[in-house]
Write a structure and sequence with these properties.
Layout (H helix, E strand, L loop, with lengths): L2 H13 L4 H22 L1 H6 L21 E2 H6 L16 E5 L9 E5 H17 L7 E6 L12 E7 L6 E7 L4 H11 L3 E4 L1 H10 L5 H4 L2 E4 L6 H11 L2 E8 L3 E6 L6 E3 L4 E6 L11 E8 L10 E2 L3 E4 L12 E6 L6 E2 L5 E2 L5 H7 L2 E8 L5 E7 L24 E2 L15 E2 L31
Parallel strand pairs: 1-14, 4-6, 4-7, 7-8, 8-9
Antiparallel strand pairs: 2-3, 5-6, 9-10, 10-11, 11-16, 12-13, 13-15, 15-16, 17-18, 19-20, 21-22
Length: about 450
């Protein structure tokens, strides 16, 4: 965490207690600035925002709900339409990122330095709500790109977990390495804090091989998927640590963090607007559930306005016992990330080589499914019709040198899903012996996981 982010953290520590009317005025000013920037610098929003633009160049925020939604599929299909041609100097340089593709659609996105720094500051604020000691060790198990984090020793960075002058140790390990590797690494590292996917931590907790953890482990921060009451109880009982939920997306950043007093999730309203909507697009009432739509107030590199990441959430009450005036969510629903199971019964987080896969089979969406006999099935929605495609939409996907159990189904999107059944060999799944569903396919949703939500 750099000095710029620390300065932003001081601001966030003040705004969370701000009077609601004052905060609304502050947020409206941020929204006006983002709408103006998107209108002037993106192809998509120049057309879509014109109807609510007034003669003085400002926007009628009372008509905000008329702005069309942006789906993940639309963003993935045409990212240039929402990429800004110019970024204001105060937003800083642009950085690139890519979503994990857990729904079968990987979204290559851009974020400005301002958005990235505010995300870091908001996350640190959430940690501090729970009395985190930043001089200790935080272990993170997630999708990691560095070679060190993808090794059994992990990537250990002393002094890099900074929320003050003296920082603690930041340690990272790739989720794809498997629970046996995670287990031994955490036993050696003895972290006070752990951040990872709930299903991964819950699986480790059930193994109960890490019996020395409870002596040091204080808090487990869960992210990346829905956290059920059963999973929370399993982790707290077997690891002896408190569980804290946090919700966000790779492309929009942190959206909400669990309150230490009420257990509700406080939306990071200084950086995002989060709507929870019924099927008609109308905002739901408190305690009701609906689909999430997100507007970033700070990402000038790639504005996302009323963006639907595919998540659902339950809206929380207007007031929280802690006294913070930030909006609340009661819980996040859906999109549980499934783990893969090896023949010996052990579980690990799969790392599907999406870039290589896309190069092999141009596609709009894909799905990996683990069969009962531990074989792999891959369903693909092709990016376009190919002249060399065989009748029924099935084509060979690679050389015949891979194990017979790795099968690939490539259905024709116009065909009846029940009729697209011929198997072809060809696609290896990196780090996998077996696989399970990684997301829904537009062809068939059977066996897929429900989308996990993000909140605001």
């Amino acid at each position: 965490m750099d000095q710029f982010a620390l300065t932003l953290l001081e601001t966030l520590d003040r705004t969370q207690w701000m009077d609601r009317a004052q905060f609304q005025a502050h947020r409206d000013a941020l929204l006006q600035a983002m709408l103006r920037h998107a209108f002037e610098n993106t192809r998509r929003y120049r057309a879509l925002l014109a109807p609510i633009r007034k003669s003085d160049g400002t926007f009628d925020l009372c008509r905000y709900g008329e702005i069309p939604f942006l789906s993940r599929a639309e963003a993935q299909a045409d990212p240039d339409a929402i990429t800004a041609t110019s970024v204001p100097a105060h937003a800083g340089e642009t950085v690139f990122g890519q979503t994990s593709g857990s729904t079968g659609i990987s979204f290559v996105h851009k974020r400005s330095r301002l958005a990235k720094s505010l995300d870091s500051a908001a996350t640190t604020r959430g940690f501090s709500w729970h009395g985190t000691d930043f001089s200790k060790t935080l272990a993170i198990i997630s999708v990691q790109e560095s070679a060190a984090a993808n090794s059994p020793d992990g990537e250990v960075l002393p002094g890099k977990w900074k929320a003050a002058a003296a920082g603690g140790t930041l340690a990272k390990m790739a989720a794809s390495l498997g629970e046996e590797v995670h287990d031994h690494w955490l036993e050696r590292l003895q972290p006070e804090y752990l951040l990872a996917y709930p299903t991964l931590i819950s699986s480790l907790a059930r193994r109960r091989t890490c019996r020395t953890w409870p002596e040091n482990l204080k808090i487990v921060f869960c992210t990346g998927e829905s956290l059920s009451a059963e999973t929370r109880q399993n982790i707290e009982t077997n690891l002896g640590a408190r569980v804290v939920d946090c919700y966000g997306t790779m492309e929009a950043g942190l959206l909400a963090f669990e309150c230490p007093v009420s257990g509700l999730l406080h939306v990071t309203a200084e950086t995002v607007i989060v709507e929870v909507l019924d099927p008609s697009g109308t905002p739901v009432a408190a305690a009701q559930s609906g689909e999430v739509a997100v507007t970033s107030l700070v990402n000038f590199a790639m504005p996302v306005i009323r963006y639907k990441p595919g998540d659902h959430a339950t809206l929380g009450p207007a007031n929280c016992d802690c006294g913070r005036t930030l909006p609340t969510l009661r819980n996040i629903l859906g999109r549980s990330r499934n783990m893969f199971r090896r023949p010996d019964g052990s579980l690990f987080w799969p790392n599907v080589p999406s870039k290589r896969f896309l190069a092999m089979i141009p596609n709009r969406q894909f799905r990996f499914v683990q069969k009962i006999n531990l074989g792999n099935r891959v369903s693909v929605h092709p990016a376009s019709r190919r002249p060399d495609r065989k009748p029924g939409g099935i084509h060979e996907t690679g050389p015949r040198k891979y194990p017979r159990r790795n099968r690939c189904f490539v259905p024709n999107p116009r065909a009846n899903p029940a009729q697209s059944g011929r198997q072809v060999r060809g696609l290896p799944v990196r780090n996998c012996v077996n696989s399970t569903s990684l997301g829904s396919s537009p062809i068939s949703r059977r066996g897929s996981c429900r989308p996990r939500m993000t909140a605001a």
